[in-house]
Fold this sequence. Notes:
Layout: E1 3-13, E2 15-17, H1 19-23, E3 35-42, E4 45-51, H2 59-66, E5 71-79, E6 94-98, E7 101-108, H3 132-148, H4 155-170, E8 176-180, E9 185-188, E10 192-193, E11 199-200, E12 205-210, H5 211-218, E13 223-225, E14 233-238, E15 248-249, E16 255-258
Antiparallel strand pairs: 1-5, 1-14, 2-13, 3-4, 3-5, 6-7, 7-8, 8-9, 9-16, 10-11, 12-14, 12-15
Helix pairs in contact: 3-4
Amino acid sequence: MCELLGLCSPAPVSARFSLRRLARHARGPGQPIDGWGVVLYDGADLRCYREPEPAGKSAWLRFIEHHQPPARLLISHIRLATAGMVSLSNTHPFVRELGGHMHSFAHNGRLVGVVGLRDAGATCCRPVGQSDSEAAFCILLERLAPLWAAGIPPPAARLAVVTRFAAELRALGPANFLYSDGLLLFAHADRRHQPDGRIAPPGLWHLGCACADADMALHRAGVALADAADPHHIDVFASVPLSAAPWRPMQAGEVAMVAPEPI
């Protein structure tokens, strides 16, 4: 399965991390990495770095691991291809503009027949690649577009749309995803392949703690919060627990909404 990592902090942190070390938490030796990507928000805009090549062979990734700019919102994805060829167009996270803000999306699972959820006549967003994940993202933006037509919509309205859409995705297959509009980070947990072979919850885990504590909890996973001395709360979402810290397994169907600023 693909691996997800999301981070939300009220103060910018330089979350310098090793995607290769993160991947080893949920994969055995020799299992493939078909691509990787990282989104780092900078206000309404974002920096997106991604490659369709294995992370272990990427000189670019080695540079980024040690030179990431500070950000308050981060989404990262390690891909194991299940739908669509291994190509840049199918590499997460996917990004689009809506309402003057950059939106990003990364998904873990397989959504059979997701294109059937597309509303007739929808033209707001179309996929570039062939993945079920990008198709789901485009449909989600179609559902959100009316809210953004008149400016920044209330958080509760955005949460309602994301929650309803997540329920539709769960009927198609495992639908763990991270989605952000640059102001909020949404994490939806479903089910995933477990070590014993079952497809079952939890599909995501959540760690919420003081930044200094998070730095200690994530260090062995290759995540180094360079600005962890600043006293503030941080939320981290991951496909599997990355340390012995008190990670909380999210319930199937749970949608968490967090923000750098008080909601």
